[in-house]
Amino acid sequence: MNILLDTHILIWALNDDPRLSEKARTMILDEDNTIYYSVVSLWEVAVKHANHPENVEFTGAALGAFCREAGYLLIEMKDKHVYALETLNRKEDAPPHHDPFDRMLIAQAKAEKMSLLTHDTQLSFYGEKCVVLV
After folding, report:
1. Across-strand partners of 5?
2. Order of strands across the sheet with 2-5?
3. Which of 15, 40, 117, 119 has the smallest set of CB atoms within 10 Å of its CB?
4. Per-residue pLDDT tens for 101-121?
């Protein structure tokens, strides 16, 4: 299975954070799965580090280095990801969600036929099969 990690799952996996669920940990460590990280996550961390370095202590470049060291594969932005973004629909009764990074990660996973591992319940309101809550 090809798995794209949501930014927080990526960071938790790299830090062996106790918030990483056993289900997520098992999926990430399964040798039959290929683990990907997105340039979108690097961008998100770079922005958050620039705005609040006291909360996000590492840069996007450092995160990329950690991912490569862990053996994760990079997925870059492609035009088909932008087109997939335009197909995302959020349920009408869903609470507001204003995170463009999350939407882009869903679009990438959808376009590439990957599973997006996330702990963010907000993403389930998109109703996309690629979103896997862990």
Report:
1. 117
2. 73-75, 34-38, 2-5, 115-118, 131-133
3. 15
4. 999 999 999 999 999 999 999
Which amino acid belongs to residue 21? Answer: S
Residues 6+ positions from 84 with CB-CB distance below 8 Å: 107, 108, 110, 111
pTM of the complete model beyond 0.90: yes
CA angle 91, 113, 118 (to 5 degrees): 55
d(CA 94, CA 113): 24
Domain span at 13: 1-79
Alpha helices in 16-58, H assignment, sequence order: 22-29, 39-51
Among 129, 119, 117, which Cα is nearest to 38's?
A: 117
Q: What are phi and psi of 2, to 5 degrees?
A: -95, 125
Structurally, the chain folds into a number of domains equal to 1
